[in-house]
Specification:
single chain, 306 residues, alpha/beta, 23% strand, globular
Length: 306
């Protein structure tokens, strides 16, 4: 019995083409860049050192053979310039390569932010002075998702039990590629941590949405309509978790801010806060579980939040 692996350029063949050709007689197995746990295997550095390297350069496998920061940065930038962008342009017959590259930059800058084609179009027109329409922006987004450069998370109204069709969050499939595209200028650890948590959940086969919880509350003597966000709703079969990413909970005010949305959810599914600090897992009086980032990233799907 043999396993046969065929590789090639995304400009010629994508996984969706294989499914079309074999018409139900083949299975797609999604292979992600290294997770943090995989990245740490057979490494002797401290967890803190490995984390700093991982959130800067990501999990592309060849990086394991490169020693210096300069080599790693150059490799990631070459992937963009000589592989990914050219493949997307060639496969999809993109006429405006400059607009595509500008949109890639905008999406890298906005990881973890709610965007839609109209918002990206306005960014390109205002900041980059590039004329483009909503339909072309939507096409470009689909090209980048099909090439496994970005992945979207739909916005879900938790109480209303419905999706918002027009707006999503997009995450980079590899944070190192994202950082390299921005020349390592935007190293916002809070956004990068959120992106890595999203990628970790996807690598464990969770479907991931971003949540919205709505409520009417009394403020300053008036009834006000309040919207709060839940970073992730992770589902896998009958399992569902509401998850907040909190790099630091260094004050009661910050803790209340992170818990506010979770406390408004009145169903019985488990609520989790993943904290950037190295903490021991515990559950508070509201039934909300707090878990350290490294414990989460180095765990497995069986004991993820048990």
């Amino acid at each position: 019995m043999y396993d046969v692996y065929i590789t090639g350029s995304n400009s010629k063949f994508l996984s969706q083409d294989i499914k079309t050709i074999f018409r139900g007689r083949g299975d797609e197995v999604r292979v992600y860049p290294f997770t943090f746990s995989e990245f740490c295997q057979e490494r002797k550095e401290s967890t803190a050192e490995l984390w700093k390297e991982y959130y800067t350069y990501g999990g592309m496998p060849r990086l394991r053979n490169l020693k210096t920061p300069e080599q790693k940065a150059r490799y990631l930038q070459q992937l963009w310039n000589k592989t990914y962008i050219d493949d997307v342009v060639e496969r999809n017959h993109v006429r405006n390569k400059t607009a595509l590259e500008s949109m890639v930059d905008a999406m890298c800058s906005a990881v973890g932010s709610l965007v839609n084609p109209a918002k990206l179009k306005n960014t390109l027109q205002t900041v980059q002075k590039i004329k483009i329409d909503d339909e072309t922006v939507a096409d470009y987004i689909s090209y980048l998702e099909n090439s496994f450069l970005f992945e979207g998370a739909k916005r879900y109204n938790i109480k209303g039990k419905k999706y918002f069709d027009s707006i999503q969050k997009y995450y980079s499939v590899d944070v190192g590629l994202r950082n390299a595209r921005l020349n390592f200028r935007q190293q916002e650890i809070t956004h990068i941590m959120e992106n890595i948590i999203f990628n970790e959940l996807r690598s464990r086969d969770y479907l991931v949405d971003v949540g919205l919880i709505e409520s009417r509350e009394m403020k300053n003597g008036k009834q006000q309509y309040i919207q709060r966000e839940v970073d992730f709703i992770a589902t896998n079969g009958i399992e569902k978790y509401y998850i907040q990413s909190a790099y630091s909970l260094d004050s009661e005010e910050k803790k209340e801010q992170e818990l506010a949305s979770l406390l408004k959810i009145d169903d019985s599914f488990k609520k989790i806060v993943i904290v950037g600090n190295d903490i021991e897992k515990y559950t508070d009086e509201h039934g909300i579980t707090f878990v350290g980032l490294f414990d989460f990233l180095q765990g497995n799907s069986q004991n993820l939040f048990k």
